[in-house]
């Protein structure tokens, strides 16, 4: 829920206290990185540095965080994901 609402500090606290991991998913299979990809570049970088999978598919369309960022017009976030290893050919 913290990721969905873009609450970067709360995400950090949850990860640091081990109440959550970067691999946790919601009911659609989306990770915190999916949500950060459309809302918070610093959070996305933090999650990637902590081991988040940049090409994790989620939802009915099996969309990756890169798909989410580009669909929302977040080109800065999309470029960050590509620099971090996201595959634009998926």
From TrEMBL:
**ANK repeats by residue range:** 61-90
Q: Which SUPFAM superfamilies match?
A: Ankyrin repeat
What are the coiled-coil residue ranges? Answer: none
Q: What is the lineage of its organism?
A: Eukaryota, Fungi, Fungi incertae sedis, Mucoromycota, Mucoromycotina
Protein origin, superkingdom: Eukaryota
Its recorded name reads Ankyrin repeat-containing domain protein
> Does Repeat appear among the keywords?
yes
* Keywords, alphabetical: ANK repeat, Repeat
Q: Which InterPro entries match?
A: Ankyrin_rpt (IPR002110), Ankyrin_rpt-contain_sf (IPR036770)
**SMART domains attached here?**
ANK
């Amino acid at each position: 829920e913290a990721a969905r609402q873009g609450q970067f500090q709360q995400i950090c606290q949850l990860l640091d206290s081990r109440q959550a991991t970067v691999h946790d998913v919601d009911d659609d299979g989306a990770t915190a990185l999916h949500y950060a990809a459309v809302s918070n570049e610093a959070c996305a970088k933090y999650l990637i540095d902590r081991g988040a999978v940049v090409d994790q598919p989620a939802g009915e369309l099996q969309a990756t965080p890169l798909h989410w960022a580009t669909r929302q017009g977040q080109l800065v976030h999309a470029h960050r994901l590509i620099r971090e290893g996201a595959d634009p050919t998926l």
